[in-house]
Each structure stands twice: as C-alpha cells, then as structure tokens.
Design brief:
The chain has a domain at about 15-60. Helix content is about 25%, strand content about 20%. It contains one helix and three strands; from the N terminus they run αβββ. A hairpin with a 2-residue loop joins β1 and β2.
C-alpha cells in the first residue's frame, strides 16, 4: 500500500513503515561505512564517533542522560 495523500497516512500499516525506515537506514549505514565517515553514538558522558578500524573519537562532552518519552504518538510527515 502506498500513501497518495496526507489523509491516507494513518491507513498505512506500521510494520510497512518500520520496514521502509529500516531499509533506508541500512542503505545510509552502507554508504557511511564505505566512505569511512564513522558511526555516531550518544553515551551518557558525551557524543562519540566510531570508525571502521575501531578508532573512537569524542565529538562532544556533556550530560546525555536517558530521557523518558511522555507521549508515544509520532508524526512522520
């Protein structure tokens, strides 16, 4: 099923949305790895970038404690 208008977006099955996001994410990660840009990871004490060779660089310091989401409703568009 494809969405032809914003009124139809609620009719799209969530599994299909998740599959589309995962497929796109796999493509993005493949390009990032090929260009050796490194993957970004947020840890409680800062933001780090890890490269293919295992090297890790701290990009930013700070307190990044986990936050609880009060609302589980998301809007994709």
């Amino acid at each position: 099923m494809t969405v032809k208008s914003l009124q139809d977006e609620d009719k799209l099955p969530i599994k299909q949305v998740i599959d589309a996001i995962n497929k796109s994410m796999d493509d993005v990660l493949r390009v990032v790895d090929a260009m050796n840009l490194g993957r970004t990871e947020v840890k409680p004490d800062g933001v780090y970038r890890t490269f293919k060779n295992g090297e890790t660089i701290k990009i930013s310091s700070g307190s990044f404690a986990k936050k609880k989401v009060t609302s589980k409703k998301i809007k994709l568009f």
